[in-house]
Write a structure and sequence with these properties.
CATH superfamily of the largest domain: Thyroglobulin type-1
Shape: elongated
Structural class: mainly alpha
Oligomer: single chain
CATH architecture of the largest domain: Irregular
Strand content: 5-15%
CATH class of the largest domain: Few Secondary Structures
Number of strands: 3
């Protein structure tokens, strides 16, 4: 009998029933043919899509080149743009940006200033920017202290120590804290 590789690929049904190897060979050929057909169809579809999109691709390429050119020109001809600042930080910036002009004063009689008065006059550094404490007529800290730039208020004792859990948005109720005995 002849070698299965030398014979024809497809045999008559009576012959294929007797030999199983020719049936396998026919399946292999069919699979390879189907695969080749799919690959050729895929390449044809890709080529078709590229030709349809050729105009758009060339337009995108020309826009890209134009943007690169404009970018190079802009960086050479212009100075950097100013960034916009949020309005809620404006009061904080204004305190540092505008130096206070101190008017020449006549020598006043020397009087010892309390710590509150020193902080309010700007003679002592205060950790909060643009915050000036409120002092009473004796020079002690008032019960309620407020930082207007942040709209925060809190209660303090006469020495200026903040009372625990008293910071709120807006005015603080320090009279209530006094009634509870948190002050003094």
């Amino acid at each position: 009998m002849s070698d299965p590789q030398d014979g024809p690929l497809l045999l008559a049904p009576s012959v294929t029933a007797s030999t199983g190897s020719s049936n396998k060979q026919a399946l292999k050929v069919t699979a390879l043919t189907l695969l080749a057909t799919l690959l050729i169809a895929g390449q044809a579809f890709t080529t078709y899509m590229l030709f349809n999109q050729k105009e758009r691709l060339s337009t995108l390429e020309s826009h890209s080149v134009r943007l690169e050119e404009l970018g190079r020109r802009a960086s050479v001809m212009r100075s950097p743009m100013k960034m916009a600042l949020p309005m809620n930080s404006l009061p904080l910036l204004m305190d540092e940006a505008v130096p206070e002009k101190k008017a020449p004063s006549t020598p006043a009689p020397k009087k010892e200033l309390t710590p509150c008065q020193q902080e309010a006059a700007g003679l002592v550094h205060v950790p909060l920017r643009s915050y000036k404490p409120s002092c009473d007529e004796n020079g002690d800290y008032e019960a309620q202290q407020c930082w207007q730039a942040a709209n925060k208020c809190w209660c303090v004792d006469k020495s200026g120590a903040m009372l625990r859990d008293s910071m709120v948005d807006g005015p603080a109720d320090c009279g209530k804290a006094k009634e509870v005995g948190a002050l003094e």
